[in-house]
Structure formats: structure tokens, C-alpha cells
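Two records follow; treat each independently.
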Amino acid sequence: MHAITLIDDHDDGLRLTCRGEIDLTTAPALERSVLTALDASRTRLVLDATQVTFLDSSGLRTLMVIAARCEEAGIEFDLRASDPVRLVFGALGVPLPGSPAPSADVRRRA
């Protein structure tokens, strides 16, 4: 199954919905779609990945690139992640983009 992206403009932001797998074959198209759609007039990007069933290292890299570009442009990035996406980020100890980093107390308990 391939990642399907649906781009929907709203106010000053952009909402992107991904479904299926974000992997070596689909990640480049996702990255191109998002980065092409972002421009200076945007203030927010919502990436709804709640229907993503698989994320590999290529997909992780793509999400991190998107987060970095948003930060560079001053665009708020809101990643809404499925359990498989959360699992990959969690296994690597990487906070989800758009989420606050865990405090030292939380890291010690883990």
C-alpha cells in the first residue's frame, strides 16, 4: 500500500493526510508534496498520520526534514501520529516533531 497524500488548504495553514505506508518508495513523493506546498504565507502545517500503518527509516527521515523546514520557515508543525509512527520515534528515543521534549524526570523513569 502506498502513502496517499491529500492536501487541504485552511486559513493560513495546510492540512496533509497520509494513509498506508511511508517507506523507501513513498517517502520521496511525500517530501516533495509537502515542501512544494509550503510557502511563506503558511503559518501552520498539520500532518495527519493517524492512518499510517508502517514507517521505515526513509519515512522517519522525511518527517524530520519536514519538521526542520517548518522550523526554519517559522511554520508551526503539528504531527498527528498513529501507533506505528509513535513506535518508531519512541524506539529511537526521538520526540515526535511538534511535541515538547520529555523532561529529565520522564526520561529517567523510562
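The next record belongs to a different protein.
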Amino acid sequence: MDAVYVLIAVLALAGIGGVLVAAARCAWELPLYVGGALGGAVLYGVVASPWIEGKAFAIASPALLLAAAVGALTRLSFALAGSKVPSSWA
């Protein structure tokens, strides 16, 4: 498997984890931001030209990176604190 696909999979898993952590803490800003950005990008991808689709996904990409950073930093904070990682993260 190409290294790019591995990194995309790691980013996707960390992003999903970040959204789940934010939802579990009732911090709805991140899930709403990610959902709105992805929903808008997919909507423009369906109804607009390829150039607009590319712009929409470029605008939505920081939301995905933010969610992945939240997921990765949450996992890192569990590791540094020595506390047990929840079973959903193992």
C-alpha cells in the first residue's frame, strides 16, 4: 500500500476520533464545523463544475485537519497522563 493512502487513513481515523471526542464532551462546535464544511463541499461537488468542486474541498480541508489534530492530541494527552485510553480508541 502506498504511504499516501496510509497517511490518509490515519488522518481519517484521527478526524473521526476528534469529532467523537468533541461530541462526547458536548462541544458541538467541532462536529458542526466539520459537518457543515463537508456537507457544503459535497453539495457543491454534486451540483457545480469541477473547478468549484475543487475550491469547495480546498475550503473544507482545514476542518478535517482540525478534527484530526483534536483526535491526535486527545490520544496523546491520554498517553502522557498515563491514564487508560478508552476502549473505542484502542
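Discussion point: The longest helix spans residues 50-81. How would you locate this feature using only the C-alpha cell line?
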